[in-house]
Write a structure and sequence with these properties.
Oligomer: heterodimer
Number of helices of chain A: 9
Order of helices and strands of chain A: EEEHEHEHHHEHEHEEHEEEEHE
Helix content of chain A: 25-40%
Strand content of chain B: under 5%
Number of strands of chain B: 0
Structural class of chain A: alpha/beta
Helix content of chain B: over 70%
Low-confidence stretches of chain A: none
Strand order of the largest sheet of chain A: 5-6-7-3-8-9-14
Mean pLDDT of chain A: 90
Strand content of chain A: 25-35%
Largest sheet of chain A: 7 strands, mixed
Number of strands of chain A: 14
Largest sheet of chain B: none
Chain lengths: ~280, ~270
Amino acid sequence: MTVRVQSATRSFGRTTALDSVDLDAGEGVTGLLGPNGAGKTTLLRIIATVLAPDRGTVTLLGRDPSRPGDRTWIRERLGYLPQEAGFHRGFTVFEFIDYVAILKQMTDRRARHDEVRRVIELTGLASVSAKRIRALSGGMSRRVGLAQALLGEPDLLLLDEPTVGLDPEQRLRFREMISHAGEGRTVVMSSHQTEDIAALCTRIAVFHQGRVRFTGTPNELTAQAAGRVWADTRRSPAALAAWRTGDGTFRNVGDPPAGAELIAPSLEDAYLLLMGEPDLEVTHS
Amino acid sequence: MTVWHLEPEAIRRYAQGAAPPDLAASAEAHLMKCATCRDAIASHVDTRRVEAIWHEVVDRVDTPRPSWPERVLARLGVGEATARLIAATPTLRGPWLLGVAGVLALSVWAAQVDERFLRMFLVAAPLGPLAGVAVAFAGGLDPTREIGLATPYSGLRLLLIRTAAVLAVTVPIVTAAGLALPGSHRLAAAWLLPTAGLTCVALALTARMTPVVAVGIVATAWVLVTAPTAMAGHLDLALGVGAQIFWLAVAVGGGLWLAVTRNTITIKLGSSA
């Protein structure tokens, strides 16, 4: 396993952001799904070696990040896009990515510039390479964040809410890039968008109030909602959640009444059910 | 139409870059027009050398021109990578420097009016550069702090680069303000050694705490020790000859300690793992 987190706990003052969390992630895209404040960002910051857990153990790429030598070794093989990635907005796109490449210890100027050009090309930023970051749209800025994370072809790529604030087309483009990045390496990404998780991830962990409520594949999570989604001409009082769909019928999620017209569940249905049942914890190997 | 061709010896020398300038210019002009000679020269060309040259051309053409602060630093002999790291230091941006200069200008004006403000200026002068060091690493002001913390770059090296850059810019500003003060010009320079010593102590503390906390502790201790006596009219504790020797020793000792431990200490630039 590239990432192995065991019983990780982290508090900020009296708030427990992460409560005895376990997570394993190997090759492919692993998704952390959950509402805001569920602990996804805290866990990603711990895996990014930016934050230390109060308790528990973390092993990344087979090394222990609490040891300074191992930590530097891990960081040489790590790409990280924080949730609110900041930029030096007066820098051009090229200058900023070059700046991060310097921090990533790419000492040979020409090889470093080649690598900067490679990630700029990969993320579709070639046409704005000489533009100042302050002049870019939100979607383009997010691409700059992804480009810096891809520098040096990291073995472990961590993306915190990579698609937040993007329009549908930009999200599709991002999905393509993340999917491509996940080939042959380990990607851990967080999101509160079930569509992104369903489209990209081979494994998911669902977070709620600092705890992991589910681990398994997207299909396994979706299967949790089998027999618990039904269509009706009205909003059912028995439903945990219900909404009118495009064809005018209501999609109800919860415990169906007798004789209900059951329909195939989606990942979003299963996620809603999981969030609505506070005592349930499910782990698939 | 071209009817003559380059001699084999001329082709060999040109391909190896050993042709004199006149022959090289003539061969180059001919090769532009003659496909036969271009074919003939192909087997003599070192492809690795051509690739390296082409690479250099692409890099020169494709790499944006550095910003003017980076160009100035390059002229001063600073490496291009270090220049870029300095250019990203939050404290070196215009608004922060204007703020420091504004506060100092106000202090100088106040010192002209009341001698107590003069004494307070001398106590407060080292705090300007120290604050600059802290601000250079403050989470809210360094937008890329989170990204930087996850990179393998040496925390101590980054700390020293930014500290040196901050001191290089803020010390002249504070010195200029000091020269505008009434009274002895010796006093205007007397805060320099305490500043160097306090900075070294703050840097040493970053092995245990973040730069912001380290600077906060050092600055608070300095003010608590020196401000009461300075306000009472005694500047010896802060700026007398004995104090100058003490701070010189602290600065030299701190510098030596940083040099000796540079490969072994871990700097806490944030609450990292």
